[in-house]
Specification:
3 domains, FAD/NAD(P)-binding domain, 29% helix, dihydrolipoyl dehydrogenase (NADH) activity, disordered N terminus, alpha/beta, 23 strands, Enolase-like, domain 1, Oxidoreductase, 7-stranded mixed β-sheet, 497 residues, FAD/NAD-linked_Rdtase_dimer_sf, single chain, NAD
């Protein structure tokens, strides 16, 4: 086996590992596990908070636990003969706490630590900081990596520089997903995924919600019809959405940090600018869902010649501006695809690359390149209705230079009609005319997230539409809408000669 540290001399007093990962979220966990799998190599994860990261305690897991009761209630009310009341808030929050292992105001990550230990990964508590080539400092302790250092420190919520907003101690996604009391009135700033999902569960739990959206539609990254469906559903649920509106200043004379998910003081007043002029909103709480920034301050990027901010990598997740093929970055920090499942995917690719390089194996195979980041990123927005999309929407495909055709129709098949009387949904495909393969798909409707993987396989595998014609959907499943899409596309093409 080749010497993975290229002959570098060990630091006196340093603790050596083959792989050191800064950040114990899903991306970092996967990178460490795959890098040492089936070998005698050693790995350490350095984590200042909780092993399991943002997703496990403050994002994907708690948000879906809060959203699911509303989805189930909506499905029940969509059938005749079923009577149902609103969710039991206390029961919903208890179930959420079980998923995030919340105890006495904190989160217990012992099960995640146990998993790491079982994989042969040592967990080091503290803030890791690069200290030159292959070196990491954790407090007074020096660690040295024989093969690789992986940056997986993630991101945190951005708070816009609006006068008075930071002093008001607004909720971020961490508070909204771990709420312990329901504000009577809430102002949500943002129109993306976090804002839409938070508005959905806050409203379902009884809050009066107003959403301030700078642009003219929700979920700007997907096909326009998807955001329109979500906006209509939120409005029907009682949510007020103010498009073309942004906060000017915020006032909260009695702000106080009462803890995560607790109302942060007295009433908050939001002065905002809309198309009709200035408006004033008063609420018990304000939620900021206006993007995220990388957790790179203080991790020593400058010691290896890197600027502050996001870290650029190649398709093997190797940091582009650092020589020697020893520094990697996975997950949100590299800004390729800020989604947990994509961070885990990058971690798997990164770990395989580290393993192959340590053992002197070829990197020529597709498993050693994260190419799904470029054209086959799947995402589900768990609003009600859900939005599920993969690949490029029509506008993005045209901008990327594809010659495309599109097919779009309502999801109206026997399966959807049987699922619920009030089923409303829509589906769209973006087709590359040069290869007759899918480059994107978007679905909106109840539980369409479960329909997405078929589209992801078609996009990632570049499956020709002629082949998809032979993928017969079961009857009477909702997935029959795939057949209707293909039939609609076929009827729009010139007849074969």
């Amino acid at each position: 086996m080749p010497d993975s540290d290229s002959g570098a001399t060990a630091d006196s007093g340093a603790t050596e590992y083959d792989v050191i990962v800064l950040g114990g979220g899903p991306a970092g966990e996967n990178a460490a596990a795959y890098a040492i799998a089936g070998s005698a190599r050693t790995a350490a994860i350095v984590e200042p908070e909780k092993v399991g990261g943002e997703c496990s305690y403050w994002a994907c897991v708690p948000s879906k636990a809060l959203l699911r009761p509303g989805h189930v209630l909506g499905a029940a009310l969509g059938l005749p003969g079923i009577e149902a009341e609103g969710p039991d808030t206390a029961a919903v929050l208890r179930r959420r706490d079980e998923f995030v292992h919340a105890h006495n105001g904190d989160h217990d990550d012992s099960s995640q630590v146990d998993w790491a230990v079982q994989q042969g990964i040592e967990v080091i508590r503290g803030t890791g900081r690069l200290d030159g080539e292959r070196r990491v400092r954790v407090g007074d302790r020096i660690l040295r990596a024989r093969s690789a250092v992986v940056l997986a420190t993630g991101t945190h919520a951005a708070v816009p520089d609006v006068p008075g907003l930071r002093d008001a101690l607004p909720w971020t996604s961490r508070d909204a997903t771990n709420l312990h009391e329901i504000p009577k009135r809430v102002v949500v700033i943002g129109g993306g995924v976090v804002a839409c999902e938070a508005a959905t569960w806050l409203s379902a739990l009884g809050a009066e919600v107003t959403v301030l959206v700078r642009g003219e539609r929700l979920l700007a990254g997907v096909e326009p019809f998807a955001g329109e469906y979500v906006a209509s559903a939120l409005t029907a649920q009682g949510v007020q959405i103010l498009f073309g509106t942004q906060p000017l200043r915020v006032q909260r004379p009695q702000s106080a940090d009462h803890g995560e998910g607790r109302i942060h003081g007295g009433l908050v007043t939001v002065h905002a600018q809309g198309s009709g002029g200035e408006i004033t909103l008063v609420a018990e709480e304000i939620v900021v869902a206006a993007g995220r920034v990388p957790n790179t301050d203080g991790i020593g990027l400058e010691t290896v010649g890197l600027p502050a901010g996001y870290v650029q990598v190649d398709d093997q997740l190797t940091v582009s501006a650092v020589t020697g093929e020893w520094l990697y970055a996975v997950g949100d920090i590299n800004r390729r695809a800020a989604l947990t499942h994509m961070g885990k995917y990058q971690g798997r690719v990164c770990g395989d690359v580290i393993s192959a390089r340590a053992e002197g194996r070829s990197l020529s195979g597709p498993r050693y390149r994260a190419y799904a980041d470029h054209r086959a990123v799947p995402q589900v927005v768990f609003t009600d209705p859900e939005v599920a999309a993969v690949g490029l929407n029509a506008a993005a495909a045209r901008k990327a230079g594809y010659d495309i055709r599109t097919v779009e129709l309502d999801i109206a098949v026997a399966g959807s009609a049987l699922a619920r009387d009030d089923y409303m949904g829509r589906a769209a495909l973006v087709i590359d005319t040069a290869t007759d393969t899918l480059v994107g798909a978007t679905f909106v409707g109840p539980d369409v997230g479960e329909q997405l993987h078929a589209a992801t396989i078609a996009v990632a595998g570049r499956v020709p539409l002629d082949a998809l014609w032979h993928a017969v959907p079961a009857f009477p499943a909702i997935s029959e809408f795939w057949l209707r899409l293909l039939e609609t596309d076929r009827s729009s093409l010139p007849s074969a000669v």
